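Board notes (copied after class):
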Amino acid sequence: MTTPVILLALTAVAVAWTGSAAAQDYPSRPIRMVVPFSPGGASDTAARIVSAQLASRFNQQIVIDNRPRGSGTIGVEITTKARPDGYTLIMGSNAEITINPNLYTKLPYDTARDLVPISMVASTPLLVVVHPALALKSIQDLIVAARANPDQITFASSGNGGTVHMGTQLFISMTGARLRHIPYQGGAAGLTATMAGQTNLIFVAMPLGLPQARAGKVRALAVSTAKRVPAAPEIPTVAEAGVPGYAMDIWNGLMATAGTPEPILARLHEETVRAIALPEVQAAFAKVGAEAFSSTPQAFAERVRSELATYARVVKEAGMKID
């Protein structure tokens, strides 16, 4: 009689063989890459750059599926509910992967549990800019003025709970600065308000903010990333300018539905890393103000865990919630 131990061993072998066989045939049909936001944004741009290379390497079509409703929640739900076979992927970002879970009180998924990381893809810095008429020439000037005049200095955002809003709230949390939030429909609208003097400052995506800073329509105080940005090496980081440990970006990373066989995940990771390393891919991201980079799935997962904890604290301190 076959013992339970032998049955378990045979089952494990069968599962491993099935996964390996699936990976050898993968992909045998088109792959859907979900983008939880509208065409033209950072996530959509990252998806189109990477998918073009993966489609060539896999010799299969990769269909971009933009699902912009619900601040990214719709696209995530579609991916988490998909069959875990590697044929539905998501080009994720911190907006819906690590920020939304702390803002929305009722989500039908857990991003850390229901999605599995493949590789980071790109990072887009935020640029801290102020109206040029203000006597704020540095981050330290901003901190001093905000502490001396609580809630009098206004900041624009791309909308409640978005990456721009969260980047500013993280700054507030780490400095004790008291700033007043004025949300707009998108980063471009928030930047326009700052240029017009309707708001005092904005932490805006660098591709939007840098050209206006170069033109003198706003004054750039700092970049949000841990290191200076090659496109503007003269601009200090927020950390350098007086807020040690501050780091914030808009990141994009490729993820799959939890339960996808490991051999398929390994193949996706291998081909994604190869694609990101290509000079033309690096150049395509640099052209839109982003930095292309890859990671191990483990490093990506750790970043998700760390950010979920960080934004939980920031959201609680700020009293931010969306039902």
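Comment from the instructor: The chain has a mean pLDDT of 91. The chain has two domains: 30-123+250-318, 125-223.
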